[in-house]
Specification:
- With about 180 residues, the protein is α/β, with parallel strands linked by helices.
- The chain has one domain: Rossmann fold.
- Helices cover about 25% and strands about 30% of the residues.
- The strands form two sheets. Strands 4-3-2-5-6-7 form a six-stranded mixed β-sheet, with helices on both faces.
- Helix 3 (about 105-115) links the parallel strand 5 and strand 6.
- It is globular and about 50 Å long.
- The two termini are about 25 Å apart.
- Bound molecules: xanthosine-5'-monophosphate (XMP) and magnesium ion.
- Magnesium ion (MG) binds near residues 43, 69 and 158.
- Its cofactor is Mg(2+).
- Keywords: Cytoplasm, Glycosyltransferase, Magnesium, Metal-binding, Nucleotide-binding, Purine salvage, Transferase.
- Pfam families: Pribosyltran.
- It is found in: Cytoplasm.
- Its EC number is 2.4.2.8.
Amino acid sequence: MHPDLERILFDEKTILEKVKQLGAQLSSDYHDKNPLFICILKGASLFMADLVKRVDVHMEMDFMAISSYGASSQSSGVVRILKDLERSVEGRHVVIVEDIVDTGLTLKYLRDTMVHRHAASVRIVTLFDKPSGRKVDIAPDYYGFTVPNAFIVGYGLDYSEHYRNLPFVGVLKSDIYATSEPD
Ligand code: XMP
Ligand code: MG
């Protein structure tokens, strides 16, 4: 447990079990496709590292950073590329690896971008899905857990860049938003 958390939703063992299942599913779906796994920094970094170890296929990895929230816990709806991919996605089977889908704005932007760049196919795997937050009609192709409409941190997910290193995921106490100054 961590003093800034109200409660733990998923412990380390539960998360890794789920990541293994997702890895097995992706291994079977992509065995002959030489997929390009794209990690969306920084939130999906821990998930990506654990996931690709369980994806038993010939594949490549790339990384992209986009801004969606800034330091606040509210979605701005503004998506901007901070770091782009190193290689072209043209003709590639792309798997976008996300930490959490909330409003769906980021996901929609990313999918549209990959389609626009002529990827052969685009699917999204997210560890967490928060369907109650949706503002656009979009769903991930693979997801680990559905989460309630609360702000969660840990296992890559942050509040103002903190808590990403926690090996478990929990709900942040609401007085943390009230007392800490976002960067
Ligand atoms: P949208 O709203 O575009 O947002 O689907 C996806 C991105 O928003 C962040 N996000 C969160 N980050 N705890 C977090 O630490 C949360 O509960 C949460 N909900 C959304 C996250 O960066 C994700 O990639
Ligand atoms: Mg984030």
